[in-house]
Give the backbone structure.
Amino acid sequence: MKIESMEDLFLEQIEDLYDAEKRLVKALPKMAEASTSQSLRQAIQSHLMETEGQVSRLESIFRTLGKSAKGQTCDAMKGLISEGEDMISDTNPSALRDAGIIACANRVEHYEIAAYGSARTFAQTLGLREASSLLDQTLQEEKAADQKLTQLAESMVNEEALRSPATSKR
Ligand SMILES: [Fe+2]
């Protein structure tokens, strides 16, 4: 699609996010299942439910624009998810793996925070109030998810990972 106006640019961003979120809905259950910490697993599962809601919000935005919901391959999210899959296959089920999963998930959240921040600003510029408010709700969820992950890493997972047998020097 040739981008020739702010409207085109906004739509392109929403299509990219739509693809990104749908990929994440498929990937998060695998990340939850691979986690060994109960609190990490719960955090990922609750973000999965939020992510499903975020997909619906994007669908609402397509509706307000009078466009049909369609995604446009998000290469960045594809890459981030693939790094998460590598992390899982390169580690044994352990706190070390959990720490690695959090590092990958934080990258995902930061990518989304950047994308939703830009999209919300574009919506504001275009005077699309409803879209802007929907994007802001998701942005706040992504920020909270990022903080929750960081908190989990700092409060327990990293310390446990340090004691994990795979890293002990004998
Ligand atoms: Fe999201």
In short: Residues 21, 51, 54, 112, 142 surround fe (ii) ion (CB under 6 Å).
